[in-house]
Design goal:
By secondary structure, the protein is α+β, with helices and mostly antiparallel strands. The protein is built from 6 helices and 11 strands. Helices cover about 35% and strands about 30% of the residues. The strands form 3 sheets. It has a 5-stranded mixed beta sheet, with helices on both faces. The protein has a 4-stranded antiparallel beta sheet with strand order 2-1-3-4, covered by helices on one side. A two-stranded antiparallel sheet has the order 8-9.
């Protein structure tokens, strides 16, 4: 049997409280899975761990890095019954930074902005690099009313920061497109298209902003 998702050795403690201990989860390709149990049984914790925290996970036999694009897409497919916001971050004027300061400076800007994104997200959220100058974010169990302020805070932090590399200092900013998953979204491709449409709107509207739907 081929597995779309295979998780082994799930364990999570909150202080002295054991939330999950020694759990294995294998999801067959093409199947539907429902986690059932009373309050406090670890259902939400397992979903958070699927997002890439404190576990060893494989998809289609491949060991995944917790912040890989593959895991981000897998989570979109695995927890579509839970409200979440998917966002894509584009680093504004990265080509100009590369041209003026060198590609190494652009790579350093990506690293610094990635750290800002991780610092601005909650522990249960997920971030991954999904393109040469694009980063993805998955905000779990939130709507746009709660998720957009998080994204605005991250955008503001990046826009106000100065980046240093090789004794040179330069400014940067980011544009963010975001979309809320809802039952009208039939496929991951449709959700991704919505996010990309909002990202394009942010870029053509002047950059350094967040657009959402």
């Amino acid at each position: 049997m081929s597995h779309a998702l295979a998780l082994h050795g799930l364990a999570k403690r909150y202080g002295d409280f054991v939330a999950v201990h020694g759990a294995d989860l294998d999801v067959a390709a093409g199947s539907f899975l429902t986690l059932l149990g009373p309050s406090g049984s670890g259902k939400t914790t397992i979903l958070m761990m699927i997002a890439g925290f404190a576990i060893t996970a494989t998809i289609a036999g491949k060991l995944l890095d917790p912040f890989s694009p593959e895991r981000l897409l897998a989570v979109v497919g695995c927890i579509c019954v839970v409200a979440f916001v998917l966002a894509c971050v584009d680093i504004d004027n990265l080509a100009a930074i590369n041209a003026e300061f060198g590609q190494a400076a652009g790579d350093e800007a990506i690293r610094q902005i990635s750290r800002m994104i991780r610092a601005g997200l909650r522990v249960e959220d997920l971030a991954a690099r999904v393109g040469p100058d694009e980063l993805g974010m998955l905000l779990t169990e939130v709507g746009l009313d709660f998720g957009v302020p998080i994204l605005q805070s991250i955008r503001s932090a990046a826009g106000n920061a100065e980046f240093s590399f090789g004794g040179q200092t330069f400014k940067g900013s980011i544009s963010i497109g975001a979309a809320l998953w809802d039952p009208s979204v039939d496929t991951r491709a449709e959700l991704h298209a919505r996010v990309q449409s909002e990202l394009k709107r942010a870029k053509v509207s002047g950059k350094n902003q967040v657009c959402w739907r």
